[in-house]
Design a protein that fits this description.
With 125 residues, the chain is of the alpha+beta class. It has two domains: 46 residues; 51 residues, SH3 type barrels, CATH 2.30.30. Helices cover 43% and strands 26% of the residues. It contains two helices and five strands, in the order αβββββα. A five-stranded antiparallel beta sheet has the order 4-3-2-1-5, with no helix packed on it. A hairpin with a 3-residue loop joins strand 2 and strand 3. The N and C termini lie far apart (114 Å). The mean pLDDT is 84.
Length: 125
């Protein structure tokens, strides 16, 4: 009879220890979930740039003299959107390459009249 009570008491102790572990694990999971939700709040604010065929873009390429340095070098035209964030781009020479959106920046052409000429005209009037 005493051995039966010992087994029962051991089982109760094991159940209580498991319950404590489950509570600790739930608390840990909740704190990790809060961290992930905070990160997702930042991701909600970010938006994906969408380019249309015919848009002019600057392409981020490696610098000729330094392989670790990138520069906005060439102006190209978007030909087609591929997959999620990849675009086919056509350069002036007719060469077509695929780039990720992070390597492209929309290019806005300036007006023909430069700022210096515009200011001179205003001063002369």
């Amino acid at each position: 009879m005493t051995t039966l009570w010992r087994y029962i008491s051991l089982i109760i102790i094991i159940i209580l220890l498991l319950r404590e572990r489950i509570d600790e694990t739930c608390e840990f999971a909740q704190t990790e979930l809060r961290k992930i939700q905070d990160e997702n709040k930042h991701n909600k604010k970010s938006k994906l740039s969408i380019l249309k065929p015919g848009d002019k873009v600057l392409v981020l390429l490696l610098a000729a003299n330094n392989k670790l340095l990138f520069q906005w070098k060439k102006i190209a035209e978007v030909v087609q959107r591929r997959v999620f964030a990849n675009y086919k781009v056509k350069f002036d020479g007719g060469q077509v390459k695929t780039f990720h959106i992070n390597m492209l920046k929309r290019y806005n052409e300036r007006e023909d009249v430069s700022i210096g000429q515009k200011n001179k005209r205003e001063c002369q009037s």
